[in-house]
Amino acid sequence: MLAWASFDWGAASFQAVITSFVFATYLADAVATEDGAVWITVTNALTAVVVALGAAVVGQRADRLGQRRRTLLVLTIGVWICMALMALVRPDPGYLPLGLVLLGLAGIFSEIGNASYYAMLQQVSTPRNVGAVSGFGWAMGYVGGIVLLLVGYFGFIAPEVGWFGVTGEDGMDVRAVVLVSTLWFVVFGLPLFLAVPETTPDHTLPRLGLVGSYRVLVRDLMQLWRVDRNAVRFLLASALYRDGLAVIFSIGAVLAVSVYGLSAGDVLIFGVAANVVAAVGALVGGLVEDRVGPRLVILVSVAALCLVGLVLLVVSGPTMFWVFGLALTLWVGPAQASSRALLTRLAPPGHEGQLFGLYTSTGRAVSFLAPSLFALFATIGSERTGILGIVLVLLAGGAVMLTVRNPRRPAEAADPAAPPAVTTS
Fold it and tell me: Are 320 and 260 in contact (CB under 8 A)?
């Protein structure tokens, strides 16, 4: 379990440094002369298309061939290479295409790889503690992001002359943080590949090419709809509310500055504090989930996110953003960790990778919804009223989630020591 969670700790370098607080911001502000945010949005959209088309098939093939760990290793090496090459991107518009390509490729490798990584949750947990293990892993990711952001900020970005004599000239402070982040991911990502065993291939199934894999995927989706509509409803619900969560992460820093008056330095410190709060939320939520079931944790988290979002519509100033922004992040961790645990309970044994691939694909398939509604409400009113678009997507996800039942895995039913299954509907 520790080796598996160590990967979450290491992968935080990509989420916190590359896509959220450091490299993407550097690309938009220092490398691009204009429309930097637009170019990053276009890159993210293209990434979403590739992930939506490929994640489920890659997860399915990894399950069938018994190559879950190998698939994750290959894709993670791709992320490491892209991150290392990002250090070559200088604050010059001529480097923008390189930065965008690397950002897009790394995003594709990371998200498709997550299908196999999430599927491994079944290998490192039991039906009785899957919620706690998932929450622990997610908390490790948040804490890893905290530590790395602090190292990057105080070691390279804040001082005029940082560690190893690095300065801000030619973007070297950011480029150095990118290299440190790459090394961080390598060091803390490797234990998983050394300690978690590979899955066993199913020799009764024929080997399939790419076209055959898509045919099997379509067949399995139709079968899933016939025999387990609960899983289909959860995939739809999670796609909606996770889209809302994704927009919170992508524009939260922008709104903090433009609407609530935080300085750029304060935003980075807020990011550290937010990760601390989210880690606590994920850890506690995972422990509670093993007692009450993941469905209730998700519903309470989504309801709380909607309520805090509505409060942020009417409050103003940095102090109010600190209070309610941190309250918002408290519920993000439980929603994410419990979603991963619920799908682990839903997945038929031997098909975890495929179902987590569908989880990734469905999330990407609706990834246009929350950004579009945010833009619509922002155009009608202001950036502040754009928050209402995010709340509506979260509400839609919560509404569909009300139709999802807590799953009970066959292994749990066979375990005489397991607690009674929750049968809420």
Answer: yes
The CB-side HSE value for 225 (13 A sphere, CA atoms) comes to: 6
Instruction: Kindly tell me the burial class for residue 348, based on how many C-beta atoms sit within 10 Å of its own C-beta (0-12, 13-18, 19 or more).
Output: middle
Spatial distance between the Cα atoms of 366 and 182, rounded to a whole number of angstroms: 30
Q: Are 245 and 113 in contact (CB under 8 A)?
A: no
Report pLDDT digits (tens) over 84-121: 999 999 999 899 999 999 999 998 999 888 878 877 87
> Is the pLDDT assigned to residue 424 strictly greater than 60?
no
Closest-CA residue to 234 (of 306, 293, 181, 161)? 293
Distance CA 386, CA 382 (A): 6
| Domains of the chain: total | 1
**Which residues span the domain enclosing 362?**
2-189+216-408
Q: CA angle at residue 286 from 282 to 289, to 5 degrees?
A: 135
In CATH, what number is assigned to the domain containing residue 128? 1.20.1250.20
Question: Cα–Cα distance between 88 and 179 in angstroms, integer?
Answer: 10
Q: How many CB atoms lie within 10 A of CB 176?
A: 20
In a domain, 199, yes or no: no
Q: Which residues contact 15 (CB under 8 A, 6 or more apart)?
A: 141, 145
Placement of tokens 């390279």 in the chain? 156
Q: Report yes or no: 286 and 364 within 8 Å, Cβ to Cβ.
A: no
Structural domain contains residue 209: no
pLDDT in the model for residue 351:
65
Least confident of 125-139, 278-292, 401-415: 401-415
pTM, 2 dp: 0.73
Higher pLDDT, 345 or 78: 78
Q: To the nearest whole number, what is the mean pLDDT of the chain? A: 80
5 exposure class (CB count in 10 Å sphere: 0-12, 13-18, 19+): buried
pLDDT tens-digit profile of 320-367?
989 988 888 888 888 888 887 788 778 766 666 667 777 776 776 677
Scanning 66-95, the segments in alpha helix (DSSP H) are 68-86
Cα angle, residue 84 at apex, residues 83 and 85 outer, rounded to 5°: 90
Please indicate, yes or no, if residue 285 is contained in any of the structural domains.
Answer: yes
235, part of any domain: yes
